[in-house]
Each structure stands twice: as C-alpha cells, then as structure tokens.
Amino acid sequence: MEDYKYLSIVEWVKNYIDSENLQPNDRFLSEKELCGIHGVSRQTVRQALMRLESENIISRVRGSGTFVKAGITRLSNQIQSVGVVSTYFSDYIFPHIVTGVERVLNDADIAMQLAITHNQVAEEAQALKSMIARGVQGLIVEPSKSALPNPNMQLYQEIKERNIPLVFFNAKYPWAEFPYVAMDDTAAGKIVTDHLFDKGHTRISGLFALDDIQGHKRYGGYMSSCIAHGIRNSECDVMWFATSDRNTVFQYAESRLLEIIKNSTAIVCYNDMIAVNLQKFCKDHEIRVPEDISIVGIDDSKYSTICDVPLTTVHHPHQELGEVAAKCLIEQMQAPQARTKDVIFKPELIERDSVAKITVDK
Questions:
Q1: Average pLDDT, stretch 177-193?
Q2: Cβ(313)–Cβ(192) below 8 Å
Q3: Which of 34, 50, 310, 360 is deepest in the core (most CB within 10 A)?
Q4: What residues make up the domain containing 283?
Q5: pTM score > 0.85 for this model?
Q6: CATH number, domain at 221?
C-alpha cells in the first residue's frame, strides 16, 4: 500500500514544520532523510513533496534542496480544513477509505489533515485536540476501541458545544450523537453465516474482535443466523480477541484454535486479515481449506484474493464509504442546523473457494 503512504507523510511534514517552528526559507529535510524516517521509497517521498509544493508548503530548488515556504499560514487562513482521524492507515482497507475522503475534499477545495491513532484512545484525544487547536472546520473520525468505555467523552462534548461538524466512519460510540457512515456489520455477519448453512454446515464457529463495535455487530449477525437455523449454543464456539492482538492470537491461543477447528466444519472470521491468518495457521498444522475446514471473512480486502485459497467474504464499500463520509461532513458544514442522517451500506456476499459444500456433518 505504499502508493497511499504519501498522504501520511504530507501530514507529518506539516506537523514537523509547526512543531520545529520552521520559518519561510528555512532548509527542510532531504528526500533521503524522509525515506529513512518513514521507511518508504523515494518515489513515495517525491509524491508527498509534490503534494506539499502544490499546497505552497515547501519549495524545491534544483541543486540547492528543499525549503519551507509561507504556505501553512496562508493555508489555514484562506482554505477550509478538515481533520481526518483513522485507527490505521498503511494497510488493509484504510488507505482506500482515506483516498475517498481526500477525493471529495479536494473537489470542494478543502484541505485535509490526517492523523493515525493506532486504535489507542490516548492518541485519538491528542489528534482531536491538535486539530481543534488548528481551527479545523470539521472532523471525520474512526473511533478507537469503540466497544469499550471511552475517556474522551468530554472532548466530544466540547466538539459538539463548539459546533464543529463531525462524522464517524466504520463505527460510532454508542453514546455519541454525531452521524456515522458504515457498512451494515450485523447483516455482514449474518450473510456469511447464512451462506455456510446453505452449504450444509451446522457446526460453525467464530473469531471476533472484542474491543470494537464492528466485532460485536458481526458476532450479532453470526448469532442471529445460528438461532434462525436452530443452533442455540453457538456462543460456546466463539473465540474473542483484542484488536491489538490480531497478529499474535494464532501463537498464544494455538490449543484453543485447534480445538475449535476440530469441533467445527466452518469458521466465521471477524475480517479478511484474521481469515487469511487462520488459513496460514491451518497450513502450518496440515489442515486443509476448505476440505477439512471452511473459512469466511468480511471486508473483501486485497488479502481475500492473494491468499492460498481465495476467500468467500463480504464486500466492503471502501472508497465509496470515504466519499460519502466526506459529503456528509460538507453538508453539515454548509447547513449546520440540518440534521445529517446515518448512512449504512448494504453488504454483498462474494463467493470464492474457501467454502466447501457438505452433505454429512464432519
């Protein structure tokens, strides 16, 4: 996803100029230094610098280097600015969502400030405070750990009292009164589970994230399907994990996962990333997919097609979701008294090769 990383470098440069109090005509970091700091290719850095030049933030002089211009002050004074806060950026579906946001904001001549929270509520608070201090005219936020009690409630109340328009995306805090744009995660969990029942499976397990609302809703859809098909004890076949452990759960919970696989014919995964990691886990333990265990994901990410066995999954609107979130925010900015409604996308099942049809339960 390196093609999208330039956006985070653009925002980092703006923050760096501000924090270091760099003045117009001060020499700025070289391409080589930026490559080293961000661990990206020179092509990505050049893409970021081109964007910064177009915004009048820096200037590049052939043979002399890169210099700060007076553009940051002019940018904040003359052009509307929106803060975009995402839990992650460099992988999975997040770059596509942010690109959709950026496209709509660019068309409206609105500058974008991007911050990444790494799904940490403390970093979310820091990002929001920084953006409010810079005078953003609106916020587009993906909440961190949305299923857990959040210490930032007072900060969101302040945003509301200041009449700063805000739109959540992917999820929202249960107590928040701001609109949000998301896929119908409950329906997504139900659709993939219904598909497994349609293929003859009756012993279906699940792996879900415990600390975000998406995980809870996808679990809700899974349970709804199981109950509709007469399976009442499916909650006993579910394993929960923290989002921060998504890359290590297959090491520390090996015995539990092997037990789930042994007692199941199919597994519903919180998202494609978990599903692909489960495929790798099965391969390491000589468990065949889908012959021995069927696996479904959710989100239709790039991982769903580049894994050993292409995943049956649910399509996530990705870029369109970002575009709609930006449009909803602009509507609020233009008509502050109007109430913007939530926008929920209907999920669509994508069938691939990771589900086997069975006639007799394993």
A1: 97
A2: yes
A3: 34
A4: 185-316
A5: no
A6: 3.40.50.2300
